[in-house]
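anyone else get weird line breaks when pasting these?? whatever heres mine. first is seq + tokens for prot A
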Amino acid sequence: MVVMPELAEWFHPKRRTGQTRLLMVGAVVGALIVLTSSTLFSWPIHGLSATAASDDPNVAFDAPDGSCLTWPAGTANISKVDCSAKHLFEIAGTLDLTSKYPAGAPFPDGTLWQKIAQDNCGPVVSKFMGGKLDPDGKYSANALNPTAQQWSSGARTIRCGLQAAGPGGALQPTTGSAKGGDQSNIYPVGTCLGIKDKAVGDPVSCGVAHSYEIVGIVDLKSQFPDGFPADDKQQTALATRCGKAASDYTNGFDLTKAKLGLTWDTVKQESWNVGSTKVNCKVGQKLDDGSGLSPVTNSVKGVGTGVAATSTSTAPPPSG
């Protein structure tokens, strides 16, 4: 089994802002600004009952803090759902921007909306999470904002909340409240992550070009119950445990025959402190020139001695 932990540096995009990861309105995740641009809502904000109609056009801005929202891809049909169901956004708090942007203030452009979200939603989300937001976890902060027309009519309230986005920025459905939940940035075993510009993308079918295939999940807490393990201890433990996970997943396939290698994520102290102790074991390959990741096609699941996924890289994978 060839291991290459150095590949892990390409797994997560660089999205940290201080101690809170922020996917800004109008930036990487355009879905929310598209939704709010075609969604009407009423003022002032008031709480919705648990039986509120799912097609209520005011739901995004009427729902109380702690509510979870979802919508079909490419639509503005926002529904309030129980947080135990799949959802795309969890409301953490409400902010009134009137004091900073009084009547007559021009509608913020994309750059200013990013700054508003960064300056305001990070603290709101952190408070909602009891100060326990994993800066490298699966959740990030964002905001639902009024449209230009609503702004000109006096609307100055934004809803800050939590969402999970893939490495390429597309929102990923989650279940359960982020508050008190596991924030480990992991994917279900068998997930393939896309590839774009030699970097990791959002989940795709394993039959198309992808960067990594998740072959196992390891909870380091089970091996280190007494506290955070240093990086060298994590590497040693994961070389064994991810190696076994990959062997079980592939039915003993020799990854080098497909010019592939095994790698994994590790956990940082600040993530461990808030309970994020699980990591991905994954299969992929670097390009020959080391400039990024090589496209891989097909899955390695259960292949044994059969035909497996193939990397376009011509060089053997580097050893760990």
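and prot B, same format (seq, then tokens)
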Amino acid sequence: MGSHAVPVLSTLFLLSYTKLVRTIVIVLHKREVTLHCTNESVRSVSLWYEDPNVEYAKGKHAGLFGFALLVTVFFVIPYTLFLLLNPFFGKYLSNFQLLNRLWNHFKPIIDAYSGPMRDEYRFWPGLLLVARIPVLLSVALVDSFIQSQHFLLSMLLTVLAIVLSLSHCFGGVYKKRMNNVLEVWFLFNLCIMVGLSGALNEDSKVLIWYNICLSVFIVTFVLIFVYHLHLQLSHMKCYDALNKKLFKKKDEDDDPLLDVTESHLTVDEQRRAMVPSSTDYIRRESVVDLF
């Protein structure tokens, strides 16, 4: 990966964050079951929600439970706080030489996330991660605590509306205007998708609108990919030479058309071109008279 190792790894961490948090919520999710024994005693047992035959944090579930806690404590929470509070850390840790030296090792990672943002909004990637948490909890717990699908869609729409409103209030968090436009475009389409899913009752109509919005996402992603591919290839000499050759060939193909249109003159136009007009005679006589 070379010099792109840090951005690539940072992107992989960001892409795996959603799936990782959802898996942790599923692993840590439990249910309480009340058992009525034959001797008229009542006992409460904690079971794993995904498999009621497994006791919670015991036996087979103990390893998953411990690993989920370790990942939560040593990766998810520090990673989220790291992205959310990095402007605060960078400002106040610079007063301490030892901590500032340690913080400088993490700056390439921060720049991979917050580089496109303006300096006062470098917390934006962390805020987007925090905005995912209520949605992830709703999706993971939809079968137990949240029975209504409309409630889930309303929560997702609320989160999207808040993020979109904050982005508008800040006047754009990215340095480049195109990045602000793309973020608003994706959030707006996602709001439309969620809103129509909650408003329409027929599954066929919901599926049609879902496919339309998904197609818009895919087309936009393909255009972004092609644009970045063009930027990467533009630094290569062979790609630049190929472009020049194609444009040069196109110009050569266009020139004969112009020559043909100019050469097809009528007989009268050719005579006029050969015989000078009266104004030319007047101009010549006036020049002779001067001498």
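btw re prot B: The CA atoms of residues 36 and 132 lie 40 Å apart. The two ends are 82 Å apart (CA to CA).
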